[in-house]
Amino acid sequence: MGKAMEIYANTLLVPRADETGQSRESSALTWRLRILSSWGKLQNLRASVAVLIGERWRNYVAMEKVMAGQRPRQDAARLTQLVVAAFCLLISLAPARAVSQPASYLVNPGDRLQIDVWNEESLSRNVLVRPDGIISLPMAGDIPTSGLAPGAVAVRIADALGDFMKDRPRVVVSLVEAAGNQIYVLGKVDKPGRFRISANTDVMQALALAGGLNSFADEDDIKVLRRNENGQQTAIPFRYSQVKSGKSLESNIVLRSGDLVVVP
Predict the structure, then answer these.
(1) What DSSP state is assigned to residue 142?
(2) pTM across the whole model
(3) Phi and psi of 263, rounded to 5°?
(4) Which positions ≥6 away from 12 have C-beta within 8 Å?
């Protein structure tokens, strides 16, 4: 296009028949200079505009990259806020549920209990639970205790004494010695026998108390024999080989008083 503009400007130098050569040449030269000057300015302006557009485009691309990096974080933050708000709303609308409490200790035959009757020292005493799970107290008579928590035993004693007293007494039962909380390990272990436990003990811990399995034990045929309140006995399988590898951990149950671990 620059070449075309120069040719067009040169055509203005050709004199016409009705004009003198001097005036026509001077006028054409003037117009040529003006056109070339304007064209130069146009080229400069074009270059400036191109530079400006390039800078604006680079800024726009850079801004888009920044915004693209921020949008996921902003969206994630908004989503987290919505989830938390929804969870709080569900909690506020949900009906209240009882908080699960750890299981209380249950009295066993052979345990020793301290019975305290408020303002009745003659009735307060230390008693041993008989093999049949019953304790004997003055006025109250025989009180069954097996399978009951100490607090439940206190309620039974208070009810029994209340029949002979003007006001229902306040009774507190404390566990002095858990001598009856025992488990048994039988079979191919290093030290089979009866073990008194004072804390929650699972099958693996019971086997450790018995010195572990010997080289002839069948690791996948161990069973826990448990008797329910009706006297019926059930066999609970325990796979030692899987538990020691971190598998089937649900079979490593907490033992109850009187449980028998059999290692064939």
Answers:
(1) E
(2) 0.52
(3) -115, 100
(4) 27, 28, 31, 32
Helix axes 2-11, 21-93, angle to 10 degrees: 150
Task: Give 25-35 pLDDT, tens digit per residue.
Answer: 555 566 666 66
CA separation for the pair 54, 6 (Å, rounded):
29
3-state DSSP assignment of residue 99 = coil
Q: How do residues 74-122 score in pLDDT, each as one tens digit?
A: 555 666 666 566 555 555 554 444 333 456 788 988 899 999 999 888 8
Token representation of residue 67? 């915004």
What are the structure tokens assigned to 211, written together? 């010195």
Could you give the strand order of the β-sheet that contains 171-177, starting from the edge strand earlier in sequence?
A: 125-128, 112-117, 171-177
Q: How far apart are CA 221 and CA 240, in angstroms?
A: 8
CA distance linking residue 113 with residue 156, whole number of Å: 14
Q: Give the chain's length.
A: 264
Cβ contact 12:31 at 8 Å: yes
**What's the alpha-carbon Rg for the chain, to the nearest Å?**
49
SS3 74: helix
Q: 142: closest CA among 125, 130, 155? A: 130
